[in-house]
From TrEMBL:
Official protein name in the record: Threonine synthase
Catalytic activity line of the entry: O-phospho-L-homoserine + H2O = L-threonine + phosphate
Function comment: Catalyzes the gamma-elimination of phosphate from L-phosphohomoserine and the beta-addition of water to produce L-threonine.
Keyword Transmembrane helix among record annotations: no
CC cofactor: pyridoxal 5'-phosphate
Keyword presence, Lyase: yes
GO BP field: isoleucine biosynthetic process; L-serine catabolic process; L-threonine catabolic process; threonine biosynthetic process
Family membership: Belongs to the threonine synthase family.
Species of origin: Haloarcula terrestris
Pfam families in the cross-refs: PALP
Length: 419
């Protein structure tokens, strides 16, 4: 059975349309991965089918199943992804000087928002009768896909840059994937995975070329809209970090759909944040003539030199009235420590990057102090403890002597007198 609510796959460059019930990645009319495809829907059919309790509890992203491009007779492979909390963040708000909420997508089953897309990929691959699935990854998509492939009983072969954080390499190994650590950058691992997909015919999960992956990511936008209904107001800004640009594009598409269907009465502006050393989407959005294709940032998840989804990301920024800005690695590390120490939310650097973006946007008058901001923390910090050590300065090492504690805090009597 086909996906009744999906109408076509439309090329973002030339508008050519393709049958969505085939496995197709990019538009063959363009070289390489340029002709990214957009999934289009019959929204009347979706609206008829959707019976979610808007403003009510969100058990998982499957609350929005009517919006998801899976066949009605597909066996869904899920670990209960999505349904992540949107936290009030009073301490962080005080520190930043603007009302801030945190959507903690690091609480997904494998510790990253990628699970929203991986559930779709493995479900679709199985439905298409495939038994091997692949992707290129800076680490999170790899870990996520490996977990879902294990759950779905599929073989998983992933390509990661050799210097990926060890936590992100351990995770897919435990999930039973073949982890191929490429001597090179993410961009090189990516090109290799595309080559392999063409030659071996494995199913490719990469969001940048597999048009259905951005569609899974849009449930974060559905949830933000749903949570806005529960809270009674839509935030002025939603802030994401950007690497390939698929995540912000998906989130915007999801929120916009709910707005256009009349489920929610306003839309946020999207703020996309990149690292100074990996700035290609920012550069394209601001019409810089020389786009810097070198990626050098400790925020490994957004260390992307040649983003594959610049078109969709820039469209999200433009349509929402938002913008893109850059932050330094030092700001990212400081943001990781700030988010953790103010709200107990431990993010990897790319997950904390939006917090650094809010600070910069306030300084530059892009965000006003009387606005409301949602930062989306996209990945859990324990995947990259080396960066956490850099962010915090690490532990105090002491001998097992009371005098060592007294050296730090004074004697117990002195500390009691201070209280
Ligand atoms: C934790 C984390 N945050 C942000 C991103 C950026 O997402 P995108 O590449 O879709 O822009 C990624 C990777 O893609 C990621 O793993
Ligand atoms: N930084 C990403 C890159 C690939 O993920 P995708 O979902 O955009 O395909 C990662 O975590 O690997």
């Amino acid at each position: 059975m086909g996906m009744t609510q999906v109408t076509t796959l439309e090329c973002t460059l030339c508008g050519a349309e393709y049958d969505p019930n085939q496995v197709i990645y990019t538009c063959p009319e363009h070289e390489g991965v340029k002709g990214i495809l957009e999934v289009t829907y019959d929204y009347d059919a979706i609206d008829d089918a959707f019976d979610g309790d808007l403003g009510g509890p969100i058990a998982s992203q499957w609350k929005y199943e009517a919006f998801l491009p899976v066949a009605a007779d597909a066996d869904i492979v899920t670990l209960n992804e999505g349904g992540t909390d949107l936290f009030d963040a009073p301490n962080l708000s005080d520190a930043l000087g603007v009302e801030t909420l945190v959507k903690d997508d690091g609480r997904n089953p494998t510790g990253c928002f990628k699970d929203r897309a991986s559930a779709i990929a493995v479900t679709k691959a199985k439905h298409a009768g495939r038994d091997i699935i692949t992707c290129a990854s800076t680490g999170n998509a790899a870990a996520s896909l490996s977990g879902y492939a294990a759950r779905g009983g599929m073989d998983c072969r992933i390509f990661v840059p050799g210097d990926a954080p060890t936590g992100k390499l351990a995770q897919p190994l435990v999930y039973g994937a073949d982890v191929l650590a490429v001597n090179g950058s993410y961009d090189e691992a990516y090109d290799l995975s595309v080559d392999v997909t063409e030659k071996y015919g494995w199913y490719n999960r990469n969001a940048a070329i597999n048009p259905f992956q951005v569609e899974g990511k849009r449930t974060v936008g559905h949830e933000l809209a749903d949570q806005s209904i529960a809270r009674g107001h839509v935030p002025d800004w939603v802030v994401f970090s950007m690497g390939d640009g698929c995540t912000i594009a998906g989130a915007w598409k999801g929120f916009k759909e709910f707005y256009e269907l009349g489920y929610v009465d306003d839309r946020p502006k999207m703020l996309g944040v990149q690292a100074e050393g990996a700035s290609a989407i920012h550069d394209a959005f601001h019409d810089h003539e020389d786009i810097d294709e070198i990626a050098e940032t400790l925020a490994d998840s957004i260390a992307v030199g040649r983003p594959r989804n610049t078109i969709k990301a820039c469209r999200a920024l433009e349509q929402s009235g938002g913008t893109a800005l850059l932050v330094s690695d030092d700001q990212i590390l400081a943001a990781e420590a700030l988010l953790g120490s103010t709200e107990g939310i431990y993010s990897e650097p790319a997950g904390a990057t939006p917090v650094a973006g809010v600070q910069t946007a306030l300084d530059r008058g892009i965000i006003e102090q009387d606005e409301t901001v949602v930062v989306v923390s996209t990945g859990f910090g324990l995947k990259d403890t080396k960066s956490a050590e850099k962010a915090t300065g690490g532990v105090d090492r002491i001998d097992p002597e009371i005098s060592e504690v007294e050296g730090l805090y004074g004697t117990a009597e002195e500390a009691a007198a201070d209280d």
